[in-house]
Amino acid sequence: MEKEFDKRYVKRNPHYESIFYLPFKRMIDFTGALTAILILLPLLLIISTFYLYGENKGNILFKQKRIGLNGNEFYIYKFRSMIVNAEECLRRDSLLYTKYVENNYKLDPHEDPRITKLGCFLRKTSLDELPQFFNVLMGDMSLVGPRPVLNEELLLYKDRKNDFLSVKPGITGYWQANGRSNVGYPERLDIELYYVEHKCLKLDIYILFQTFYKVLMRSGAY
């Protein structure tokens, strides 16, 4: 972990949260996602054209089942950063796949045979995440919340699984604000659950600003 994660946001008001926080948060999510899509539409179209040529030929979007609020499954969308049939390619190398699982379902870009040159650039700049604004519009995700996980990752939460699933997942969250891919399990688990226990508008705004800074610095993105 880059540092001990920030624990300043410890005050909660359940009455405020139940009456004002969630409806206001959904309003911000919908307005923010729609505004982002409209502003970024030219960029979305430019990125999409790269999938018509060379090594990038294939589907523009990558979709994957993730676990969301109350355990409901949904498809998360990203710009495809990998070759077609990427998972089959990885599983064919049993040693590399084992390392992938043991390394919190991550591989360094230089040793990951699935990532394309365009995909590497999109990941480093976090542009691959832009299609998730559509997930927010559809209500499957929020702008801020714990990152949605795979079934295998959910098992790591053990008896805290239901706590983790009580909050809508987000495009960004406290994990991203505190190191992102530089922070693995079990530290990531502690950070995500800290957000669940202390979520509030003030913390959400802090996370959004921290995420913007992390993206600019390309911190923890790969």
Task: Based on the model shown, name its key terms.
222 residues; globular; 9% strand; two-stranded parallel sheet; 48% helix; mainly alpha
Mean pLDDT: 86
The count of strands amounts to 4
Taking the sheet with the most strands, its summary is: 2 strands, antiparallel
Which term fits the overall shape?
A: globular
Structure characterization notes:
- The chain has 222 residues and is mainly α.
- It has one domain.
- It has helices at residues 14-49, 86-91, 94-102, 117-124, 132-138, 151-154, 161-164, 174-177, 187-198, 201-217, and strands at residues 61-67, 73-79, 142-144, 170-172.
- A two-stranded antiparallel sheet has the order 1-2. Strands 3-4 form a two-stranded parallel ribbon.
- It is globular and about 50 Å long.
- The two termini are 16 Å apart.
- The model has no long low-confidence stretch (mean pLDDT 86).
Write the layout of secondary structure elements.
Layout: H1 14-49, E1 61-67, E2 73-79, H2 86-91, H3 94-102, H4 117-124, H5 132-138, E3 142-144, H6 151-154, H7 161-164, E4 170-172, H8 174-177, H9 187-198, H10 201-217
Parallel strand pairs: 3-4
Antiparallel strand pairs: 1-2
Quick synopsis:
The protein has ten helices and four strands; from the N terminus they run H-E-E-H-H-H-H-E-H-H-E-H-H-H. By secondary structure, it is mainly alpha-helical.
